[in-house]
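sorry to bug you again but im stuck and you know this stuff better than me. theres a chain ive been looking at and ive put its sequence and its fold in C-alpha cell form underneath. id like you to explain what the C-alpha cell line says about the fold, in plain words if possible. anything you notice is useful, everything is just below.
___
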Amino acid sequence: MENHKPDGTVKKNLIEIITRKINQLPEAERNLLENGSTYIGLNAALCGLIANSLFRRILHVTQAPVAAGLPMAVIPFLTAHVSYKGFVSLPLNTGDLHCETCTITRGGLVGLVFGGLYPVFLAIPVNGGLAARYNSALLPEKGNILNYWIRISKPVFRKMLFPILLQTGFAAYLGSRQYKLLIKALQLPEPDLEIQ
C-alpha cells in the first residue's frame, strides 16, 4: 500500500490557507494565537525568579543577585517559549495538531515541565554554586550530597506547588483557547471568494 502523506505543495497550500484565515481574525485574537508562547515564557521566568529567591533564602546567599537572577529569568523564558511554540503553536498553525484534547495535554505538559519544574531544578545548581563560592551555607560532605539537596529542595517544592500548578493550568487553558480560535478562523469564509 502506498503512503498517503501530503506532498510538499499540498502542505504549503494548507499552511497558506491557515495563515490567510488567521489574518482575518480580530487583532486581539490573532495576537493570542501568535504570541501565546510568550505568555508561557513570561510565567516560566517568574517561576524561575521565585525559585531562585527561595533557594537564596535557604542557602543564605546574599551576594550576586543579578548574576543569579538573570539566568533564572532568561533561560526558563527562552526554554518555555520555544518549547510551547514547537509543541503547540507551530503544529496548530501548520495543521499537524487536529485534536483539542491533544492541544490541551501538550500545553499542560509544556507548562508543567518547561514552565514549572525546569526553573526549580535550574535554581539548584545556580544557587548551590553561589553558596559554595561565598561559603554562605554549610555544604555536605561527599557521601551526603543527594540527601542534602533533597532535604534542601523539599520546602522549595512545597512552596512552588501553587506556581507550578498555575503555570500548568494556564498553559493548558491557552492551548484550548488557541485551538478554539484556530477552529473559528478556519470557519471564516475566504476573503477573495465570491458567493454565486
Remarks:
- DSSP finds six helices and no strands in the chain.
- The CA atoms of residues 38 and 44 lie 10 Å apart.
- The radius of gyration is 22 Å.
- The mean pLDDT is 90.
